[in-house]
Queue: 2 jobs
Job 1
Amino acid sequence: MTTEASANNPVEQPLAEGQESESTKRLVSILIATTTIIAALAAFLQTDAGGKATQANRNAQRYAIEALGTRAAGQSQADYGWYGATQTWNDLDTEASALNNAGDTAAADRIIKIRDKINTLSPIMADPYFDASKSGYPDLAGFEADTFLVKATELSERYTAAATLNNGWNNKANTYIVHLTLLAVALALYGLSTAPDNWTRWVFIGAGSALVLITLGWMAVTITTPVDVTSEMAIETYAKGYGLAWRGKYADAITAYDQAIKLEPNYANVLYERAGAHFSLTEDKLGQQPKEAEAELRLSAADYEAARKAGKEDGSVNWNLGWTYYLLGFFDESVTASRRALELDPNLFAVRCNLGVTLLANGKLDLARKEYADAIKIVTDKVIAAHNENKAPPSSLWFYLNSCAADVDSLDRRLNNQDRFWTQAPPRDLIADTPEIRAEIKRLISDIRTMLVSLEYTNQVPGERPTANITAFQFATHSKDKDGNFLYDDQDRAIYDDPLPDATFPSGTKKVGILFNYQGMVKGEKEIWKVYRNGREDPSLRVVSDWQLGEAGSAVLPISYTYSTVFSFSSGEYTVELYIDNYLVQSGTFIVE
Amino acid sequence: MSLNSPRWVKRFEISVSILTALVTMLSAVVAWRAAIAGDAAGNADFSGLAASINQQESVTLNSSKTYQQYRAFTSYFRNNELGNALANDLSSASSDERRIMERDRALSLNQTIVDQYFFETRYLNPDGTYAVQRQLSEAEAEDAQRKDIDPEPHFTEADRLRVKSNLMVGLLIIMAGSLWFYTMASEIKHAIRYPLALIGLLCMMVGLIGTFIIEVL
């Protein structure tokens, strides 16, 4: 009876327990079907994002492989142009000059004809890279930029862009997997809701539905979140700018970089390279017109900071930023940047030297000494480690030690108003100037140069200091008779004029004598002479031998190009250093006009 | 037989249950084909990258070898030109000069014989220059015979298969839609269940035809 009554009046009567359960199950079925559609959509989005990530990853690998191949193949061609064609051209040119100087013009003409035929062997020896009337050397950087560098740079940037794209799509794909997992949990909750017949089923239905709604919201956010895509035009413009910077056209490179930044305001590599281009523009002013370099240096520092903010937070950015701030005289900012670089890699010896020279210029003597001590310890550890493994210490140590000494030397020059075009130091008025700092600078130059020579010749840190005592160098020319012939004494030793008080020699000088007195010498000690022209060593003038003279006396060391009928000393400042048993014991400077 | 007759309702419900099972099975088949296509796309990518490595290895090694040989040719060219120039100037030289020039000429031409061991003389052009580009192209052609150095077809195939996989997974949404309509048709006890079932059937047909087209094309 009850069943009939209910069937006749379905609206008026409350639902029986079984009917309520049935309608709830229907609802759950519909919810499950709806969730399945959402899951199918999530699966589609995940497959699409995953596919795009895989494609971007493949493209990244492809671009990396192509960039490497393009660079290597292009370098082979450029190397031929330089070491094959250019070297042969210059060999023949020098030969022709020597023959001309010797009066054999017929032979010289013959050689010049062959020399000119070499021009046909490589495009580097033709217009626009080579003009023999201006220089005997072609524009190698321009040739490299045109033949492979711009293309290889573009491919490298495409690699970075594709890797970023891969990362973006991978993140999306992974997020969709989370969505699918949440939807699976929701489906499980719906399934569970069909089991109990009491109020708990609504807890499952409610929780499942909440999960589905949250997932739907999250999916909407994920779908609408854009993936970073680097503009093709920005990449091409950047590569073009890189090529211009490579060939030394920094102002044009900055213009190209500006265009790339307009297209991609947060393009970290462009900001970094533009900072480098601004810095390079200052390099001919840093030495003798530091004030004129300030504006470019500020732009450079700002770009390095922008590159950091854009995500390029690595050792090289902070290294360069620290150095730029140092040259500006912003010592605190420089220290902060250098310390950031050292946090990323505590073994960056050169950065520790930069930090040391910054602290020195800022008058923080104790901190500077500590940094230099740490730097020397890095070198010592590397030398010992190499020694224990029966290997030579890495050659990079020599390079960085040389730079380290040159930087302290630059600081010394700026303090003493002896700037040269290669000097890089902060403004004179910002450098702390005390007798202690001046003494420390001298000591550091000597210690670092000694370490450098010791490493080069013994692969070890310097041993005990020798007893050698050498007086200041004087410089003189080899005496000549009225016909221009060099004069020698009866023991065939060169006779020298009186030393020049200003140590300045005329252009075309072929021979210079270094005069000095010595005492405390020991026969057989290693004697090394190094000659730097304009701050860079000229290895052809290096002399290495064992001390053959007595314990005390006077001596002259000739350095010369007299063997050559073509070459003489180029104009510039020459610094001569004498090392005894790898210790720097004396140095002096002469000028060739 | 009326649409409300119990027999008709029973038949309808059985049909919807069968169609639901069918669309579920069809979805499984589509998912399987999508996975197969995705896997094949990955394999094509791998083959393409391997071809890229081969291609760049070929370009790099051939370039390095060719330009090394070209350097040897440069030495040959220099010595040969010098020998020829000395020979040309012999007639106008004095007897003393002549002796020295003949000696130098012999030295230069002897040197050209040594130089010829270090480059491939078949690339010498009639005008005495060297066919660098021909040597590079021939070396590349030779490599192409020995190994796959063309990545492009692999990458094109990979991209095609990826689109196929994506479309297949896209069809799953339509299949899920079909399932949804069948569920509604079986759960709603109202005349609207019939059009709902029809829409479900249409969705299933679209999915089926779509799968066929994607597989065939």
Job 2
Amino acid sequence: MNETVYRNFYVGSKIISGRYALETLSFELLQQNARRPLCLIPETEKAAAGTIRKALKSTVTVIGAVLICGRDESDLPEKIAEVYREQNCDSLIAVAEASLMYAVKSARLKLSAGKTAAEIGRTAAASEITELPPQQVVPLFAVAVPSVEATYYPHELNLGEKRILSPALFANTVFVDPRITKKASARKEWRKPAAAALMTAVWALSDMQSHPAARACALSAIGQVCEALTARSRAEQTRLVCNAQIFSKTALINSRPFPAVELLPLIQVSEEVRIGILKTVFEKELTGLSFGYADLTQAVLTLCGTGSFDNSSPQTVKNSFTNAVSALLEKLFPGKPAAGSVIWKQTAEALPSSYLNDTDLKNECLAFLQSQIGE
Amino acid sequence: MKTLPYFEFQSKVKILAGDGRLEKIGEELEKLGSRCPMILSSRTIARSGIPEMIAGGYRQGMSTGVIDTDIPADSDLETVKRLTALYKEKNCDAILAIGGGSVIDTAKGVNIAVSLDCPEGDINPYAGAGMVKQKLKPLIVVPTTSGSGSEATIVAVIADRKQSKKLIFTSPFLLPDIAVLDPRVTVSLPPLLTAQTGMDALTHACEAFFCLAHNPLSDSFALEAIRKIAEYLPRAVASPEDTKARLEMAIASNLAGIAFSNSMVGMVHTLGHTVGAITHVPHGACMAILLPYAMEYNARKEPERIGYLLQALENEKIFLETPKEQRPRAAADAVRRLNAELKKLTGGAHAVCFKEYRDRDGNSPVTEELLPKIAYEAVNDGSVFYNPEELSREDALRVLTAAYEGTQLN
Amino acid sequence: MKILKKEIHPGKKRIKNFYVSVMLWFVGRALQAVSKIDPEVRKEIADLPENCLIGMSVYPFGEPGQKAPAMFVRKTGVDRFRFEGRKAPADKPDFLITFKNIDTAMLVLTFREKTTEAQAYARFTADGPLAIACTFVRILNRTEIYLLPKPIALCAVRRYDSPKHKHSNRIRLYVRTVLGF
């Protein structure tokens, strides 16, 4: 029997995005029965502290404390948990810079399950801990800033050798507020996070078995990147990019993309190389997909000034879409995207030293890379 | 397509979709820390062997605490109280709801009572917006109608017959933990009901797309749902055993449910609810008849969005070949064509206008004399807020008259 | 890691609170006045349940020990509204609109955001039967058409239906609202 099975689909966080998004923070806190948050700000995004405080004025929310957290502090999770208890807090607000979010998620585990992520990792036997025992977790509210990794969003935590995956790691709500995104440290480089979101969306699309909802999220992400290109203000542009990142991550964590593509985040290669790889894989893999987004293609082509396309058959629509995304990447990184055997060689060289545990996957990827170099 | 500068989106329900997913429930229960679920359902479902399929996937030491099939068509407080006592008596630790809107709403009500320790199952103190403020016990939902979308909403409506009022509960914690979409659940749905519930889902998706609170994510969900319904609904009606079509319809209905619970519905529901309340025409039948009229009515305010639906209802080629200003009308006509096809496939049972509609005894419950009364009461339905165009009583009557006759709206 | 500050109490946005309070007060009095002037509005009020209490407020109104702008109107007699003041009467309102925060209430009450937009963006919560909400919003729309100049009123309503005797009623409405009879 030819069974149809889709992958499971899950969006763990509520997303609130737009003008005065942060002003709903107090309301959202109360929905989780929280009135006394601990506020965590990364050193690089200090300006956000003021905006959050202002947004909480004239409400019932008392901020327990504001912590400025540096990069790479080793015992940050423990310290956060300590202040949290000392100040009698009942929830966490964190500005979502990558390294801080790892610490916050870990601190949240410490407060809810009694152990930090590192401690759970030490005691667990498996390399991937997929489920933690059910519990009431400390409410966590993430404030999004554009970044290439977008780690605030998914339900995962990498501990070097091990990986924790749990719905308990999702933030309850993610806020995308233009006042925060326009001041974020990465604001001037918004094209990079945009390209990252685009890539993530495309990876997710390359999974034929993913739930239609995951594909919908990926396409929404591409749509938001397109809108960002013509946005009138920096605030709106960065907000749309943040949206795109959240949507594309949602799509990706619900998909299992083509292995070679999944490898990319693990391999230390330059941004251009990654884009080049993406382009090639995209062109190769996408031909098998059924597409229905002529207007998206049209929008991208118009933006990139490459005109219209022939929509006579599904195949040509697909091809045009592929070309359109290539054009979009070219627009985001003028003159940079490179493809060809050089990239694949670099990738193949990087692969053996990467810390990929799954040998089958590694071999499959190597085979793929070899075939690319041979071309 | 431009998106609005502000949106909120939530859908914290984990979706399991595919053939054989019923047997995965055991695994999910284990992850949620439950060993003894209470099953709420209807007699037909209990007889169809679905509870057995679910039990087939149970892990060691897991068993169904109790199966209750005595749930009224409108969820009420007495049932919630009775089930709460039963839940405690059998030491259950999770609820599994297999059914349509009323079963799911009852399950949400029981979940409030058992999780928050309401004395004698009286959930009255938690009625209202945002009164439930903590995580409840695990709730798994298996929707059986492919239409209502209540597996994706944060609302539960439970009638308090003693005080003759409806208690409305809204809280993000009312969202089920898991929704399971398995084609085996819906294969037994007869063609007419399949057509009606399918059109209900299509209406959810279309209204989610063109009504006021649309947002970038719900847009994509809605389009995906419309595409699937346009392709698979006639197939599911023509060959009820087609599991692929059944699964795709279940998914489409769920996607539409997620879309509309985040962006709300408009005048099709405004009018449809009232037609249903006064004449007892099934909800899905009202939706099917009214949808093209709502598209025409709103075309002046939202021409681009309604025209865009053509792309999902038909295909890109037709969409791009149709001149921009003709697209909204063409989209409405596409829905009409779908209705006509369903009418043919159900041997004329699926009505395309109110004049044609016949109930089981062959009577026509909707008469021309009733229309002014329906129009008068309709504008008090909350969904009217989210309709792009204002809908006065006169407008409502105009739309209803056209939908009664089956003529285009000018 | 550095603790920047401990125990930050929310404080007040006094100017915004003042403005919103005044606007709500004005709306409440205007509703009372319009029920004496406009026959269409009276027809709508007649459909409401006996003694029906309707409120508009801004979060955290209703939280213990918190002050926030609000206004209440009650149906009296067959088809009139009475302004009940800015504090919550003893009985629970039949229908209550609550803006999620003072800033979004400002956006709407300064007409920078259309009412339909505010609704689409879920700027407020509504607690109570929606039938009352629908009637109330229709009355509000009618009142706004009287109170506001057309370009601004267009922000607040989806369709501008000009009532009979708009200009003379407008003057009467303003006089009654300000003087409170």
